[in-house]
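User: Could you check the structure of this?
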Amino acid sequence: MTERDTLVVSEVFGPTFQGEGLTLGRRAAFVRLGRCNLDCSWCFSPETPVLMADWTERPIDRVTVGDMVMSYRGRRYESAVVQSVLRRTVDHLIAVGLDDRTIVTTPDHVFITPHQVDGRRRSPAKDLEGRHVRVSSLRGWEPDESVRTADWWHGWASGLIAGDGHVGVERWPKIFLQVTDEVLARAYCRVLNEAGSACTVREASRRTASGKVVYRVSHTLARAPWIPELPSGPDEVGGWLAGFFDAEGSLSRGQLTIAQAEDKTSERVQRMLAGIGITSTLQPGRGVCVNGLAQIDRFLRVTRPLLDRNGAHRRPNRLLRASLVRSVEPVPGGSVVNLSTSTGFFFADGVLVENCDTPFTWDWERFDPAVELREVDVAELVAEVAALGVDRVVVTGGEPLLQQRRLVPFLEAAAARGWAVEVETNGTITPEPAVAALVERFNVSPKLANSGVAEERRIVGVALAAFVATGKASFKFVVAAPAELDQVAAMVERHSLAPVVVMPEGTTAAAVLAGGRALADAVAARGWHLTTRLHVLLWGEERGR
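Assistant: Sure, the predicted structure tokens are below.
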């Protein structure tokens, strides 16, 4: 077997549908080849702080594979696992200056920018001056263990009893806790046992009206005489509020509520909140409310309740504010570090940044080529595709024309079987005549500046002219905002590209549809075509569909 008889393949899947372009919706199989000639190496200086999943920050050089970092997708914060850490040395760096921080990065690293402010969704670092970047409002949390001191735990136990417990008298005074959350019961039991008690968690014989289990903890007051007392120091106050919130609190739609029918207790809670700098409103007979995302964030940061349902930041897009980039200055090169995460996004010094697209076809810092790629005999590949029962094959990547000489035998076999073959390419490699003769259509997708790739790498005039000359090419542009259509128009005119297809950027159905609506009128006015990302609309980011 010669090298020409094999192809380096990432995956084969189908039957599915062509997801974009002029043949959108056609039934097809996909052959995804490995390797890309426009892979990115985006990095930061080693001291750049990364927002971790517990809301603390850590220098990027101290982040390791398997760590959990905070990410952001679909208007939500979410955790992401670090899949690889890349370290290297570069000759050139730039300093991106915001109002309150400076980030040192490689010039092409892509930052997320606010569409509603700048009319775009991302920009490479070197083009950021005068633009805005998306910055998290939730930074600088201390680790849980540094907030939850011994005094905090004493205050927390007192607050929990104030909310879900009571003091009763049998033969001697006893404290009783009854909750439906086992996490709270066991945490309370641990605090009391560490103070010298010998209590246990038991299930009560009764259930709630909705059928939930009730957990009970009881012990003598003499074992914890501080439980009924009001907190004094700042740690005890923070713990008491956390415990009371765990017992009586809720968080929904930007409002934090601590329910309480007794107004005297609500007034006490309001005074404690004021003592830690939080403004609240008293609702007679109902409790205390904290409004405003900044105030809620401060409450959760200072008090640190135990229950995730109360403490998790399930917040809307508003918590990513827009921060103006004041300056972009060159600085000397040096050591740099980059992360690859499971979501493709992470926060560098509080600023949302992006990973590259389709990395499993080329990024061997993040993915194992022994797992992701296989060298397949052409005859075997043809049989694999034939088993899918299709008459149209889409060859994609990576960049499939990196293997175009190997691709010819597959194209010949496809022609013999009557299959139509489309090749998806970034348009930087000139197609050889043998390939051009056997391909029904080239779906050429030159990258725009929003990709973060340098122009001299992503736009190759000779290659684009060769695709035009085949008469088989359409030219698709992934557009993040209507303002980028001028960039497309300039490229179309300079290289005489036609037909032109515009596709909205997006990795979720909502983003694709919103982008399509924003672009539709302007695309129609220019006489171009508009396509969706059908796979995203149907299956999101699921691979193999």
